[in-house]
Amino acid sequence: xxxxxxxxxxxxxxxxxxxxxxxxxxxxxxxxxxxxxxxxxxxxxxxxxxxxxxxxxxxxxxxxxxxxxxxxxxxxxxxxxxxxxxxxxxxxxxxxxxxxxxxxxxxxxxxxxxxxxxxxxxxxxxxxxxxxxxxxxxxxxxxxxxxxxxxxxxxxxxxxxxxxxxxxxx
Length: 170
Ligand SMILES: [Zn+2]
Description:
By secondary structure, the protein is α+β, with helices and mostly antiparallel strands. It has one domain: Secreted effector protein pipB2 fold. The chain has three helices and seven strands, in the order E-E-E-H-E-E-E-E-H-H. It binds zinc ion. The site of zinc ion has 5 residues, from loops.
């Protein structure tokens, strides 16, 4: 076993969050603004890999940096690449190759989904839906998208890890 992927979604005040990703000594911290619904996009993009999509793309708006995620199905694995572009006002039309590669890793889909689900559920446990909306402001906590991904993960992935099945707090 290599180093385990870890993902933390650190919700800040006034529509900002920091998405912290690490795998052993390799780390990247991505600032995320509420200009996009970053946590929802992350969850739904991973969810789309359970269907016919072979590739999923979305970006975090870090004002002005674009952090573009590219997820590619490779059998039971997912290649994850994150590129940065200096100006989100123009970069969403640019090809991936024009960005700077900030993170690249191959994970099993099961591991990736599990770790991201856990990160999202920690946010919900800590802040609740009301607390989340008070901080993130532009978008509610993506409860339905979280539940969709959890259902797909539990049904289709061979995951032996423990799962938090507590009902989201109100
Ligand atoms: Zn799991």
